[in-house]
């Protein structure tokens, strides 16, 4: 926690203070959820008064939106590395389904679910949710288009398939938060559907696991 010494606080520039606020909001969101990112909580996290946070933060809606974006963008960057390491599109899809549906990323799933709910009354958050959803669709679409170009996938509309894939992944992950089926069952269910959507031989994704 940052020092509460006024002499130390005064040495931080506006840019540094805003970065500190953003980092604190992200930590709170990861540990307690987006709903816990409040003016008082952020101030307590960095050891300053609420008035100082209010002075530097454009609004708490924007702070919450920034925390959401930081968390989900970090996950997508991680998955970009996973996709690159997979080598080919079939392996990439299989690896993505495994890591996204095995329950190890439930903390980020919860952030998405909370953002969908809170975004109805937080315009800044809703805008970030739409932008990150688009980024996810574009990420999946690149994989699908690569698979089509290599002759492995038989898809007429990669953009539509990518959007459908994301919706199905989000739905199963939301179900997983209340322990609907186990991870293996969810992965198997999704793999069967994805094989059909991409024109793959039935069972090929299971064979790659």
Mind explaining what this structure looks like?
By secondary structure, the chain is an all-alpha fold. The protein has 2 domains: 6-57, Orthogonal Bundle (Arc Repressor Mutant, subunit A), CATH 1.10.10; 68-208, Tetracycline Repressor, domain 2, CATH 1.10.357. The protein is 76% helix and 0% strand. It has 11 helices and no strands. The chain has helices at 6-9, 14-32, 39-46, 50-56, 60-86, 89-101, 106-118, 123-149, 158-176, 183-198, 204-208. It starts with 5 loop residues before the first helix and ends with a helix.
Q: What percent of the residues sit in helical stretches (DSSP H or I)? A: over 70%
Number of strands: 0
Q: Unreliable runs, pLDDT <50, ≥5 residues?
A: 1-9
- CATH class category name of the largest domain: Mainly Alpha
Specify the number of helices. Answer: 11
The overall number of domains is: 2
Organism: Microbacterium oleivorans
GO molecular function: DNA-binding transcription factor activity; transcription cis-regulatory region binding
Protein name: TetR family transcriptional regulator C-terminal domain-containing protein
Keywords: DNA-binding, Repressor, Transcription, Transcription regulation
What's this entry about, in short?
Residues 38-57 bind DNA. The chain folds into 2 domains: 6-57, Arc Repressor Mutant, subunit A; 68-208, Tetracycline Repressor, domain 2 (Orthogonal Bundle), CATH 1.10.357.10.
């Amino acid at each position: 926690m940052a020092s509460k010494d006024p002499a130390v606080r005064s040495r931080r520039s506006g840019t540094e203070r805003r970065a500190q606020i953003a980092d604190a909001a992200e930590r709170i969101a990861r540990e307690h959820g987006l709903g816990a990112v409040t003016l008082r909580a952020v101030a307590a996290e960095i050891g300053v008064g609420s008035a100082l946070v209010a002075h530097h933060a454009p609004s708490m809606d924007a702070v919450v939106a920034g925390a959401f974006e930081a968390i989900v963008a970090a996950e997508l960057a991680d998955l970009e590395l996973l996709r690159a390491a997979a080598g080919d599109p079939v392996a990439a899809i299989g690896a993505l389904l495994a890591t996204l549906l095995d329950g190890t990323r439930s903390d980020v799933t919860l952030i998405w679910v909370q953002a969908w709910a809170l975004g109805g009354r937080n315009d800044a958050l809703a805008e970030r949710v739409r932008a990150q959803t688009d980024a996810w669709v574009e990420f999946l679409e690149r994989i699908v288009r690569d698979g089509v170009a290599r002759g492995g996938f038989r898809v007429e509309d990669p953009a539509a398939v990518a959007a459908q894939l994301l919706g199905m992944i989000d739905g199963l992950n939301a179900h997983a938060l209340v322990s609907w089926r186990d991870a293996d069952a969810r992965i198997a269910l999704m793999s069967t559907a994805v094989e059909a959507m991409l024109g793959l031989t039935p069972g090929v994704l299971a064979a790659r696991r």
